[in-house]
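Exercise 7.
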Amino acid sequence: MNINKDAAKQVTGRKLDWNEIRKKVELTGEILLKNTVLSKEEQQSILKNRAQTIAVDTQNKTDADESIELIEFSLSAERYGIETSFVREVYPLKDFTTLPGTPSFLLGIINVRGKIVSVINLKKFFNLPEKGLGELNKVIIIANEKMEFGILADVILGTNSIPLHTVKASPAAIDGIGSEYLKGVTGEHLIILNTRNILNDEKIIINQKSSSFIS
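Solution. The predicted structure, written as tokens, is:
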């Protein structure tokens, strides 16, 4: 117990440093533990508890470090983000061809270096309220293993890495957008869309028999 005496001497006559005292007490405990004869079961239990503590600390650090890569864009005076893992490219909208007999949310089709891509107007698909004038002259082409199409944007704001712990669960709906299309919202009111669900939505797959188009 010499360490405790030394600690008492060091703190006498000056302000107590509780962190220093705690460290010395912990060190004393480790020394006592090393000098104590433990059974094999007790040693294994101590090692298991230490391993679990390290695993929890590591998981907490990993969760805090995880982030999501987004392309941010504006639409109807709101900021949106979609995961870059689903983005093929951003393409300027110069001209397009409308298709008769298709839903209003389908702007039409564009030719991207010889490939025909359908373009969706999210304002109409989500029934968003009109908020000021929009340019709608950028197309963000998104895709998964089954679908590929473009979505209209007013302005591309750039890419950003958002820590996952800052993304909060979204309300049931935001400005008419169903919860199935929302991944979350940040404190800066960046609305993160669930790109996977948008790509998998059967309402976007238009029936060819009705003079329509599948991307």
